Amino acid sequence: MSNPKKTPLPLIASALLCVSAAAWAQLPPAGEVVPAGFQVTLERDLGGTKVIEATKPNENFPKGFLDQGITLQITWQNNPAAEMIVQMLAQQPEEPAGRNPGSATREEPCGIQAYRDGVLLCRKVIMPYIGSGTGVPDLVTWRISWTGKGQNGLLGVNINNFHGGKEAAMAWIDAIIPKITKGD
Known about the structure:
Elements: H1 9-21, H2 30-33, E1 39-45, E2 49-56, E3 70-78, H3 82-91, E4 98-99, E5 106-115, E6 118-127, E7 139-150, E8 153-162, H4 166-181
C-alpha cells in the first residue's frame, strides 16, 4: 500500500496568500485609475497591499493661504475580513468637531454614510486666516474617504486638502470606485 504524501499546511497557506495577492494584478495601473490633472507620486505593491498616491494643485485657492495641494490615495489590502470591517465602519459614530492639537485649525464632521457598497466618511477642515489684514474668510478644505470591499480585500479612496465644492471631490471618488471594484 502506498502512503500518499501530505502537503504541509504552511505550504498550502503560502499558496493561498500568493493567489490572493495576485488578485491585485486585475486592478488597472495608476495611470488608468487616477483622474486627469493628478500627478502620480507613488505606486507601490507591498505584496498584500497596493498603494497609489497622487497630487494636484487646488484651483482658485485663496490668497493668504499656502496651497499644500490635493492629495489622493487609493489603496487595496488583502483582507479576508473586509466585509466585516466595512460594516464596523458604517456603525461607528462620527468623530465630533474639534481643534487639531497645537493649531488654530479645526475640523467638523460632515457625514458618515453607506455609499456605493462601502462607507463614505467626510470631514470639513477649517483654517482661520492668521496674518495682517482683515476680512479674509476662513479657508475650508475637505477630507473625504471611501472604504469598500472588492478584489479579495479592502479598498480605499481618500481625498485630502481639497478646496472647492464637495461635489467635485465626490465626482473623483465616483469615477475611481468602478475602476477599482470591477472584476469582483
